[in-house]
Design brief:
64% of the residues lie in helices and 8% in strands. The protein has 437 residues and is α/β, with parallel strands linked by helices. Strands 1, 2, 3, 4, 5, 6 and 7 form a 7-stranded mixed β-sheet that branches. The termini are far apart.
């Protein structure tokens, strides 16, 4: 009988079921773990994005913090500069008050000198009247002596005829001749006295002319000093012996804004310029430069000084400006370049009369010429201020910087006032804004 071996029953149906169940559990656990892994991956991605966004916010916050720190430092620097400027302005105010007091004292002294000169003039006039009376009396005495001389000569001739007839009359003739000689001597003495009186009269007239000239000079000086005292409210220190006046004659000098004309604006510019000229107590030489698209000399004499005459110069400038019509753009570069050519000839002060920012002239690149006018003006203004500091008005050995005073007319933009103020402050001058009437 053959013995058959039985197949082990390890993998029976039950065991297969168990294995299948176990495998299902493993697959289920793997799927669960895969799902959790995917969810964790998504969560990790969102977390990374949030972390990245948070880092960006932190970077922006740090940048804003740095910017705020820089702004804070800049504002502190501005505050320091403003405090220094305030101290300087207070010092200038005290200096101006001292000068005003000095000018008041000088004005009183001039008034006293004027009174003394007037008294001297009255005394000279009295002496002149007295000399004229003496001269007239001497002339009358000379006429009387000439008449007596003629009578004596006639009498001598008569006595000579009688002497020929009567020898006894010779003594009378000799006496008459003696009297005639005395009369001639007296006539010569009176003639000499008359010449002396005439010389004294001429000297008195010459002295009177000199006193009248001194009186006129003192009156002019007193008038100019008084005008300078009365016009200090404009805020400009009225100094300058050799002065260049830069007058903006661009088209805006007849406008309130781009579309509104103002007939009184250019008139106000002319009157202001004349007023400043008359108020300068030490003005000796001057020149007036008009600038728009280009520069021109109002009274001619290009490149040379004009002599200042207190009686006529301001009126000449006013009349010449009345014949000019504002037109064109504002080219300040050419204006300052032409004005500073006078520095070698003793230029010490400059007055700039304008109502706007520069909007034409050198200082722009080819790309910048396509910018808006406001942006171009800002670039040109910085360019001019830089040139003044580095080139035109730089300190020179033995030669002081030129004081630049600025006067703004009816400007609408605060940038214009800021530019003119900075222009004056950086060049040791003063700024005043003339508001719209």
């Amino acid at each position: 009988m053959q013995v058959r071996h039985r197949i082990p029953t390890i993998f029976n149906i039950s065991m297969v079921d168990v294995l299948c169940c176990a495998l299902g559990c493993v697959i289920l656990l793997w799927l669960l773990n895969l799902r959790e892994a995917k969810q964790e991956t998504v969560t990790a991605g969102k977390t990374r994005e949030q972390l990245k966004a948070t880092q960006t916010v932190l970077d922006e916050t740090a940048s804003r913090r740095d910017q705020l720190q820089r702004n804070l430092e800049a504002e502190r620097a501005k505050l320091t500069a403003l405090n220094q400027e305030l101290l300087r302005l207070r010092t200038e105010q005290r200096t101006a008050e001292d000068r005003l007091a000095k000018m008041n004292r000088e004005q009183r002294a001039l008034a006293k000198d004027k009174a003394d000169v007037s008294q001297q003039l009255m005394a000279v006039e009295d002496r002149l009247s007295e000399k004229e009376s003496l001269a007239k009396a001497a002339a009358r005495r000379i006429e009387n002596l000439e008449e007596h001389l003629r009578n004596a000569e006639k009498r001598a001739k008569e006595l000579q005829a009688m002497a020929d007839l009567v020898p006894g009359l010779r003594a009378d003739l000799q006496s008459s001749r003696s009297k005639l000689a005395d009369a001639q001597a007296n006539w010569k003495a009176l003639e000499k006295a008359g010449k002396t009186n005439t010389k004294d009269l001429a000297e008195a007239n010459r002295r009177l002319t000199e006193l009248e000239s001194e009186k006129k000079q003192l009156t002019d000086q007193a008038s100019r000093a008084l005008a300078a005292v009365e016009n200090r409210f404009e805020g400009i220190t009225l100094t300058g012996r050799r002065v260049v006046f830069l007058v903006d004659m661009s088209g805006s000098m007849e406008l309130v804004d781009e579309r509104t004309p103002d007939a009184n604006k250019w008139v106000g510019v002319r009157e202001t310029l004349a007023k400043v000229m008359r108020s300068l107590p030490d003005l000796e030489k001057f020149q007036v430069l008009l600038f728009a698209n280009k520069v021109s000399y109002l009274l001619g004499n290009e490149g040379l000084w004009l002599d200042y005459d207190p009686q006529t110069s301001a009126n000449r400038v006013t009349q010449a400006l009345a014949a000019v019509r504002p037109l064109g753009s504002t080219n300040m570069y050419d204006a300052f370049e032409a004005a500073f050519r006078f520095r070698a000839a003793g230029l010490d002060t400059m007055y700039v009369l304008s109502d706007g920012l520069p909007n034409s002239g050198p200082g722009l690149t080819a790309e910048q010429t396509t910018l808006k006018e406001i942006e171009r003006s800002e670039i040109l203004a910085k360019h001019i201020r830089s040139l003044l500091r580095r080139n035109w008005n730089r300190p020179l050995a033995g030669q002081p910087r030129v004081r630049i005073n600025t006067i703004g007319f009816f400007y609408e933009s605060p940038d214009v006032g800021a530019f003119l103020w900075a222009l004056a402050r950086e060049n040791e001058g003063s700024f005043v804004g003339m508001s719209r009437p």
